[in-house]
Each structure stands twice: as C-alpha cells, then as structure tokens.
Amino acid sequence: MTAAAERTRSTVPIDWGAIRAIVAKDLTAVKRSRLIMVPMIVVPMLLMVIVPLVLGLFARNTGEIDLEKSLQAVRVPSQVAEEFTNLPPDEQMLALVLGFLLAPLFLIVPLMVSAVLAADAFAGERERRTLEGLMHLPIDDRDLFLAKVLGAYIPAVLVSWIGFAAYLVVANTVAWPAMERIFLPTKEWMIMIFWVGPAVAMFGLGVMVRVSARAKTTQEATQLGGAVILPLIFLAAGQSSGLLLVTVPLALTIGAVCWAIALTLTWRGAQRFTRDRLATQV
Q1: How far apart are the C-alpha atoms of 104 and 235, rounded to whole Å?
Q2: Domain boundaries, the chain
Q3: pLDDT at 211 exceeding the cut of 90
Q4: Residue 195 CB: number of other CB atoms within 10 A?
Q5: Cβ neighbours of residue 209 under 8 Å, at least 6 residues apart?
Q6: Do 115 and 159 contact (CB within 8 A), yes or no?
Q7: How far is residue 171's CA from residue 108's CA, in Å, rounded to a whole number?
Q8: Could you tell me the maximum CA-CA distance found in the chain, to the nearest angstrom?
Q9: What is the pLDDT of residues 214-256, one digit of tens each?
Q10: What does pTM read for this prediction?
Q11: Nearest CA to 142 among 265, 17, 12?
C-alpha cells in the first residue's frame, strides 16, 4: 500500500457496526467448534482449578518446612521473603504457593487461548471455504482486521477472568482452614489480571492474526505463530511473579507500556492488512 493510500484509509471512520457483526459471527463459530471449545475450557480448568487445588492441599498439609531454603530456591527477593516468613507457620506455604508461585498462569492462559483463536481467524475461514465470502463483505480492510482481532481477544480475556474467579474460590477455600480469612485478591493481583493480562493477550493477538492471514491452514498458522508466541509465554511466565513484587504505581506503568506496544502493533497490522495480500494465499 502506498503512503498516500494509507493516509486516505486512516481517515475513514471505523465501522463499529460491521465489526460487531463479524465478531458475533466468529463467536458463534467458536461455540460450534468442538476442536476449539474443548481445549479452551479444559486447559484453563486444569491450570486454574485443578493445579491450584492439588498444590494448595499439598501446601496446607506439608507441615513445618525450611521456608528460607524454599524461598531461596525460587529466587524470591529478601525483602519479599520477609513478608512470607513473618506469617504464621501454617500460612507460609499457602501464601507462597497460591499467592505468588502460581501467578504466571494468569498471563500464560490468555496468551494460549488467544493464540488458538487467532490462528483460526483467517486460516480457519480458508479451511472452511468461507474466506471468499468474507473478502467480499462491504467493510474496510482495516476494520476486517480489527474484527478478527476482537473475535479472538474477547473470548481469551473472558476465559482468563472466569478462570481467575474460579481460582479465587479454590485458593481461598483451600487456605481457609489455616488462614481463616480471604487473602486473595490483592491490589497487585487485580492489576495483573485486569490491566496487564489483557495487554499481553492483545500483543500476542496482533502477531497471531497476521500469521493466520498468511497461513493456508489453522495447523500451519499455529506452527508459524508458535515461534513468536512461545517466547512471549516464557517471558510472561518469567515476569508475572515480578509484577507482584513491585509497587502499585510501577505495576500500572508496566501495564501502560504493555498496552502501548500491543495497540501500536495491532494498529500497524490493521493499517497494512489488505484483501489483495490475503487473496494471494487462497
């Protein structure tokens, strides 16, 4: 696309009505697809319900352990380690496992779910032989791209939030006999789930939808996108616990930076996406 054409296109108002119609169609297709729905339900349930339940029961019944060695093993900073060691002995392991060590799951899950859905965005249409009809819709190329991003983004975020609600029930229920109080969520957890997590999911989607537009099958899109998404998953896993260690203003700032990068990537993808490029892959 030429610079002049791109400038002209950027002045066209976004057709939110058309975007909503495409998103609704995609959400309906997701609900009807067993291949998508099963992993989208089973994997978050396993990671956000079963794993916390098993590890929480184990932590509650572990008995006395050398907590300082455990904290050193997971490389918890000394100033944060004091917060755990100052707790009563029967609360220490529960707070460490359920309140700290499982935090990476809540950035990994939206990335995983969004990657599965985004891989189906265009490649799935191509496999189902519905892409030609999609390309003839009276909608701007930019709006079509944004609709496909939102069609994957909304379920990914909803699954993450519903999974977090289930996690809170499991974690607080398991910890109640020892703590006799609701210890989650904290302000740091809320920022990670409702501010940083959606930004990370949007970042991954901005990449995966562009990959899906180039791939001929969903499997190919998943394989190609894995080269980008897997490093993001490892990065998210490595940094999520760290978000619980910083101050609230710093966590909000980190989230703002993530959003700036994610929205820039998505918008640039929308500006560069064209039906002509998509048609060459049909």
Answers
A1: 10
A2: 38-279
A3: no
A4: 17
A5: 118, 121, 122, 145, 148, 149, 152, 269
A6: no
A7: 18
A8: 69
A9: 666 666 666 666 666 666 666 666 666 677 777 788 889 988 9
A10: 0.83
A11: 12
